[in-house]
User: Fold this.
Amino acid sequence: MEKLYTPVVKNNDVVQEKSPGKGAQLQAKPFDFKPTKTDETQPEQQFNPLGENVSHKATGLTVQRRKGNGVDKAVWLTAIGLRGNYVSERLLENYMNDEGKEYILTKQEMKDIKPVGFGVSLSDGFNNLISELRKNGGAGMSVQLKQPSAALTIGTLGSFTIIYNGELKVDAKGHWQFKGTMQFEDTYNFNPHWFSKDSRRSIVGEIRTIVGHVFIPGRGYKVSSEKVNADMTSKDDPFLSNLE
Assistant:
């Protein structure tokens, strides 16, 4: 009875695996082993505002995106001092859900993040626009203006943008009236400025952001708000304005 042949491996060589016939010579076959090599030519990943995996040349950090669980949420709310403020908790929870779903602030939430002054007169290019419109006795026009602002409530929006849409009227003396809407806009993504001189973020705020960027699992997302009425005049003080 012909004996079954058991393959033998020696020095990474595999002996022929078939049962040899009578008088057959065993042939050695090379063991084709090719280790997988890392593709060193792959381009470095860049920061994505919606929270994909990122790398940084300056720090060598690579942040892996994943969904946070209940324990993650409880730990990080406490660790970075957001526990107790409902807007902060909702925004962080939406981040850790890892879905990138847009969050729309309610009118009450717009109030509760405590924006540092708001008013169409604080918008970029507003004074130049007034100068143009007051020529020849004044004029009016439809406008969309953007104002940089910031939230005082920790863990909410930090720096964000207020967008005004409406009708602006100016008389010959430069008195103006705006009637329209305003809306908040931002991206929630733990985007560090790495203590840049151009950053308006506080040192404590930057440290919190870096910690969140490196350690907190989740995905960045867009933040907007309800459109609320914005009726303003040149007599209003934007730093004393309240959301009605």
